[in-house]
Amino acid sequence: MDEEGGLQALEGADGPPIQYRVGLDMDEKLNQLWMDYISESKDKFFWLFLNKFVEKWETQVIPSWELLVGSRLSGGRELGPELDKLPEELLPALSKYLFIGKDETEQGRINKEILDQMSRIVKALTIICLNIDNIPLVGSMEFVSHVTQLNTLLLQHLLEMESTFFSSKVHSAVNNQKLRSAIIATIVESCHFLETLYDPFFRWRGYLCGKETQGLQILECPVFLHPVTIPFLYESFETALVDSFPEIGHELLTVFGAIISGSQHNAVSAISPATTKMILKTVRDSKTSQDIHINAIYCSSKSIRILHETPFEGRQIDLSLVVDQYQQILLSLTSKPEVSLATLVEGLSLLTRTLQVKNSAELQELFARRGVVSNFMLVIENCRLHVNQKRTLLPVVINRISLVLKDCEYAQNLMEKESLYTRLFDLVNSCGAPDYNTLYSILGIHRFNYRINCKFNYGINCGFN
Hints:
Elements: E1 8-11, E2 17-23, H1 28-40, H2 43-60, H3 65-73, E3 76-79, H4 90-106, H5 112-129, H6 135-140, H7 143-162, H8 164-167, H9 173-198, H10 203-208, H11 229-237, H12 241-244, H13 246-262, H14 264-270, H15 273-285, H16 290-308, H17 319-333, H18 341-354, H19 360-369, H20 372-382, H21 387-405, H22 409-417, H23 420-430, H24 436-446, E4 452-456, E5 460-464
Parallel strand pairs: 2-3
Antiparallel strand pairs: 1-2, 4-5
Helix pairs in contact: 1-2, 2-5, 4-5, 4-7, 5-9, 7-9, 9-13, 11-13, 13-14, 13-16, 15-16, 15-17, 16-17, 16-18, 17-20, 18-21, 20-21, 20-23, 21-24
């Protein structure tokens, strides 16, 4: 890497670049601003330094969080600066000013200027944590405590701003909107910091889009989950947050996903009865956000995979309860008139990836014992989609039922015992003439019961002979 953090391409086995490194170092201007701050002890030099530090990252490395995530998932390695190349007093100074901002917020002195300063501090911490070698020291300091306390106060203030009582005190709607936007921006920035701290390789983002961070080092997050983090998430979702501010709800769920994806030791600490309840409640309370629905389903799926591969004595919650949660999330979506076909397709299809674990036969049977076949059919029966859209769901459900039946004697016997084949084909017929995809799926499930006949006329009638 050159002095200014220039771009480097790493050559793959076949020649073309497959990964990019770009980083950030101090320069003469930053050094001078810091020297001015130290020598004169004036706050203005600290903020000038911090603004220049963040600005340099955005102009020379990557300009936005969204582009950073996309780059990381494509193999990019945007690296934060090395701590030994930064001023020795920088982290203590960041902690000091973050504490001051939190104290100002606690005293009710909330304005856009203070919020912008807090956002800059938190963004600087995120940049520093993008160098994984820096994470242990950052994690050992009081940053997480300060950030979670600050955000709890900001969430309370934000919810008060939505109330009629508070709104009657607001003299300027424009100023109110600016303050509201600044609070949301600070909370979102804080979520990005927590995500980077606990999941520096963006494994959760990779799981969401089907990329298991291939080609990156398989290292775990080097810090342990802080005692304040899960209570902060849980208490945030106990408010009216999800419906009032779905963007924040989505970001907070992403933090939970990052915690359980970043390391096994943090995952087993985070997956508990409380967080299981939190995720299910989030879906039941959320009326409009498809992003929250999808995020919650993926959190449940990832939790199942992790618990399945965690020794029994290391679990805080029985695996069967999390399996139930995954199905309850899908069933709860069927009662929502605004739920989309895409959300249900993605949620149902996720069973395939959920079962891609070691000793999958054991997890497969557990799903069968917890009623997944019946519940997946219930999703189609109870959802408020038009019959044409239900027809689209049929092959998705039938293929997942086939997946559960494969090499699982318990599931195959259950289908016979509870007449689930009959119920399944009644469901197919209730949706009208099946399309090619549904017929193909039925042929796939046919191999598990050779008494099933498929009779073709103008439509199809499937049942037992």
